[in-house]
Amino acid sequence: MNFPVSDLTSYQELIEQQGLKSQTNIISLDKIIVDIILSEKTGFSRSQQVWCLIRQRIVDGCASVVDIDYLDVRLMPQLNRIIAENSIYDYLENQLHLSISHAFKEITIDNTSEQDKILIDIGKDH
């Protein structure tokens, strides 16, 4: 999906607008080298260094979202767990003074993976 900047709402903004309680847990934050499969999936160049960020979102006490993000290390070499727990959009715009013109977000619905079973509150039958 390609979201125009005028319609771009960060996770934190959405939670505040909806009046929900939220907690973000950082599962992992690692620098990785893009391989051919990840390059085809994300558009990053092969052999480029990116951050692989996996976050668990707990909304109103229920672990309901797993976010997996790939971020260009060149744009944010100092990314850390504190920044990732808060708002990456806020960090880019207000700390690094970068303008966000658009965002690509892939939203998928898949069969439950082993990682999902650990990170998301789902029924035992799934």
From TrEMBL:
Organism in which the protein naturally occurs: Faecalibacterium prausnitzii
GO biological process, alphabetically ordered: regulation of DNA-templated transcription
Name of the molecule in the record: Transcriptional regulator
UbiC transcription regulator-associated domain span: 17-125
UniProt-listed SUPFAM superfamilies: Chorismate lyase-like
Cross-referenced InterPro entries: Chorismate_lyase_/UTRA_dom_sf, UTRA
Gene Ontology MF term list: DNA binding
Gene3D superfamilies reported in the protein's UniProt record: Chorismate lyase-like
